[in-house]
Design brief:
By secondary structure, the protein is mostly helical. It has a domain at about 15-65. The chain has helices spanning about 20-60, 60-65, 75-85; strands at about 5, 10-15. Strands 1-2 form a two-stranded antiparallel sheet. The model has no long low-confidence stretch (mean pLDDT about 75).
């Protein structure tokens, strides 16, 4: 069976398997492209987002490091706490002396 098509007043001979081939190729390409694009986009987006977030967090690190848990405290008290050194620790007591032997063993000589 031979199909004929007229394109710009020229007769072009189309083989019989062309409609089936075009349907097969369209289905195959749609499935292949959807799978390929989904995998590619997921990998690309994960890599891109990880790099972008690492750069963003390293540049704007100050915004994310401090969480104000006690908003009623004033900044002056925080600065005083940061400037004053901690109180000195008391000295450790000296270790106890080693035990001395007060009894003697009898000698069997």
């Amino acid at each position: 069976m031979i199909f004929y098509s007229t394109v710009c007043s020229f007769q072009v001979q189309i083989p019989w398997f062309f409609p089936y081939l075009s349907i097969y190729l369209s289905i195959y390409l749609s499935i292949y492209l959807s799978i390929y694009l989904s995998i590619y986009l997921s990998i690309y987006l994960s890599i891109y987002l990880s790099i972008y977030l690492s750069i963003y967090l390293s540049v704007f690190k100050l915004k994310f490091t401090r969480v104000d848990v006690f908003p009623q405290r004033s900044k002056e008290s925080e600065l005083c706490c940061l400037i004053t050194p901690p109180p000195p620790t008391p000295p450790h007591p000296p270790p106890p002396p080693p035990p001395t032997h007060t009894h003697t063993h009898p000698s069997f000589l």
